[in-house]
Design goal:
The chain has about 100 residues and is an all-beta fold. It contains no helices and nine strands. InterPro entries: SH3-like_bac-type (IPR003646).
Length: about 100
C-alpha cells in the first residue's frame, strides 16, 4: 500500500489497497471527535479494512490537514494527528467537527 501526501495545494492521488482515490488538499486545522458511540478507531490508512493503531473518545481534539480521502466504498476519511499522544492516522470524516 502506498499513500502519496500532497506537498502543495491542489489535487493529489492516493493509492490504498490498489484503489486510487481523488482527494482535495487544503491548509489544515483543529477538529473535535463527535457522535462516536464507541471509541473512534484511528487506522493506518483510509478504509475499515486497515489496521487500527489507536482510538479516540468523543470530545478528543485532533488536527487534520483538510484532505478528504475516499475508500473503495466511497466513504470519506481524514488524516489526523492527536497532539497529546502523537498518534497519526486516518478516521472517518463523519465523526469530526472541524473549525472552518
Amino acid at each position: 500500500m502506498k499513500i502519496i501526501k500532497p506537498l502543495i495545494l491542489g489535487s493529489v492521488l492516493t493509492l490504498s489497497s490498489g484503489i486510487a482515490s481523488q482527494v482535495n488538499a487544503g491548509t489544515g486545522g483543529w477538529c473535535t471527535v463527535v457522535n462516536a458511540r464507541t471509541p473512534l478507531n484511528i487506522r493506518i490508512a483510509p478504509g475499515a479494512e486497515n489496521p487500527i493503531i489507536g482510538t479516540l473518545k468523543n470530545g478528543s481534539p485532533v488536527t487534520q490537514d483538510y484532505i478528504t480521502y475516499y475508500d473503495s466504498k466511497g466513504r470519506t476519511w481524514k488524516h489526523i494527528i492527536q497532539p497529546s499522544s502523537g498518534i497519526e492516522g486516518y478516521v472517518r470524516a463523519k465523526y469530526l467537527k472541524c473549525e472552518d
